[in-house]
Amino acid sequence: MLKNSRTRSPPVDENVALSIGIKALEFLAAEPELLSRFLSFSGLSVEQLRQEANRPAFFTGLLDFILAHEPTLEAFAAKMELRAEDVATAQRVLAGPEPRDVE
């Protein structure tokens, strides 16, 4: 069951964000059609995916991919018992602060 927005979740720090990213990779690996779509979208081969999965920045892109398609986001969040908002927060945490405009 998808947690609703009123359900309290612990704060999403970098460790929690990385854990959500790892869960996203597990979810992707269990869905061959989705994995194929991600590989096509990212331009990665399976071997490159294995190498990139060691970098936190990879999980930022993976969560971007999941967030970009609402049915995928809903399926992932439901399966992992997360709120969609927590997935979005994890992506932002892993992406780091946005660069500021310098005038």
TrEMBL record:
InterPro entries: DUF3572 (IPR021955). This is DUF3572 family protein. It comes from Plantimonas leprariae.
